[in-house]
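quick one, 805 residues, struct below
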Amino acid sequence: MPNQLKSSLIISALSALYLHSSAQHVNIYHKDWIDFNKNGKKDIYEDPKQKIASRVEDLLRQMTVQEKANQTVTLYGYGRVLKDEQPTAAWDKEIWKHGLANIDEMLNSLAYNKSAKSSFSYPFSRHAQALNNVQKWFVENTRLGIPVDFTNEGIHGLNHDRATSLPAPINIGSTWNTSLVRKAGDIIGREAKYLGYTNVYTPILDVSRDPRWGRVVETYGEDPFHIAEMGKQVVLGIQQNGVASTLKHYAVYSVPKGGRDGNARTDPHVGFREMHSLHLYPFKRVIKEAKPLGVMSSYNDYDGVPVSASSYFLQDLLRREYGFEGYVVSDSEALEFIYNKHHVAANYKDAIKQALEAGLNVRTNFDPPSTYLTPLMELIEEGGLDIKILDQRVREVLTVKFKLGLFDHPLREDIAIADKKVHTPADEEVSLQMNKESIVLLKNEQNLLPIDVNKYKRILVTGPMAEATNYTTSRYGPSNNPITTIKDGIINYGKTKALRVDYAKGVDVVDKNWPESEIIPTDLSGEELEKMAEGVRLGKESDLIIAVMGESEREVGESRSRSDLNLPGKQRDYLMKLKETGKPIVLVLVNGRPLTVNWENKYLPAIVESWFLSNQSGNVLAEMLFGGYSPSGKLPISFPKSVGQVEMNFPTKPAAQAGQPGVGPNGWGNSRVVGFLYPFGYGLSYTDFSFSNLQLAKKQIRPTDSLTVTVDIENIGKRKGAEVVQLYIKDVLSSVTTYEMDLRGFEKVELNPGEKKTLQFTILPAHLELLDQHNNWTVEPGKFELFIGNSSVNLPLKDSFEVVN
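---
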């Protein structure tokens, strides 16, 4: 049967299933408006020609208190809280007969959650029709017909069955390619649109400063400027499709004390000025420059005040200073934590009161909406919450719904086209390119890479991550796409070059005593020695060893923080035994956070950081290892040498990461490891580049002026490759302590051998401002130094300019 006919039959069958609401009402759909309240006349809120503010006020005037309350709550979709895949007659008796703010993850066949598996998630047109049916119920069966906002996750591709899969956010950050990230955002937004989703929870703008933290893998890295540039492109890409982008996690979420996750998620030890300069900077920039329609409030407190109950964060900063005009949704259970974790509310009602008064719009948790709505209604009836507060929270939610066009076109009319618009061959090419550009070459002694197939005819692939698959699919991304493991990718490539490729796992990711073994080492067991012996035997018979080591999705991710940063389990023991074979070893790291691979860096000739690639990981890695393309990724986060150095980051305050004196009256400090293992912005290539001809348009500027900077870059090697040109600025003298230098510009450029290009950067006043002693953002007069190179420590070009009044 032709696919087009099959899709048409499916859609017809779905439509036939859905008769409940259409049989209940007269026709409410007119040529250019919808009679949402079924009163037979065109109300202001139903008139597309009216201003949004007028439509919102007209609708708000018609709403009951219960209907208003319902616009402040999320219903988790099928398989999470909702038990029905499609509307039923029983819905007329459910609390959502009065409407809902949003439905989250509806029929997406959530990865690794069997209860959420649905036949409506695929084909894509079937899902679009299924969400149409749900939306139609809200339009036709609720009194005022207020549409719901269909939300979904999307941090590395839309969280939907067989949507286009992107690598993990830490990979995306490693590309340093803003135009590619914009394309990725467009894919996420377009796929959401055609599948029927109207709001995507991405990007994550958290600034990772502690690699022990489990969610480093879900961030773009540690530098606020870099994160802002990445996140801005994601928002612009999504919202150009008419779909909302919701930023998370606001705010100061990514530095829980000691890097702890799980039940902690509190107590960030961050100074006020550091909070604004580092952790709030990406949110401020992205909100001002990309105008996202959503923000997710975080679980944690700051300086004793839960963010989700803080008018300072949700009103003063977010709406008044940053100009946010969307709605704030709580991270799941963030509202409840005000009461049951932070203990600053006397009871649940008090927590609801604090959150709504502070500026939270929509509560989200993994339980029925009535759990929240019942105490909210009691609170209102008791006079505990001013109805004007509720009105304002609802006003902000409804404004977003009008901006999204939900009151003009609540139902998708082009259902069948979803099968042609979601996960296209062109989308797969973008994903492939993003995977390639995210790989970082950390070490390449004597140019071992790319692998010379004429020299190395027999190769051993070994290590616990060579056959792993689950790390390519997370709770927050696409699922059910075919996966090529790293082992299979290398084997398949080897066949094209007449190579013999053997495989032995050799060691597990963790040992049976892990995580206790991170602090109490144990001897190798007989079983472990036996596994390693097989790999060592094959290694001796091979010309080269590719060891694929690291962390699985069980050691890194949400609620998966670590106490140590070495390779977990007995992986290093196995590498030591492989080294004794005398054969060259290429270490491929598969991990979601910086690791303290000091021994590996000292004794192994080649190290590749692949992070968590998507389902194409095996083919992408094999092509890179054998020279199909030159690696171009750069680290978006520093690698410390020891967990004892944590926190150790870029940017840093002057001398904050310096060593200890070895001479003089306090010269007993030769006892501490200093310096980065790999610095921020670092990454090698198969070719070489040179920088020259740094030119500043002016040597003096006023505080309100911009400054144009040009520089030449040339590929002086023998292969085609891409380099990331990085620009840093240092404020030489300031009224408050500033960072040693700040990243203030970067551009990725691809060059053929011998090719040269001139790049232009623009330094804006905002790039020079600081938060002064009076808590005002200002550009202070004085000297600024400017550096250009290809990492935070390799900056061959330097100049300076002066800001004058």
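The first strand starts at residue 74 and ends at 76.
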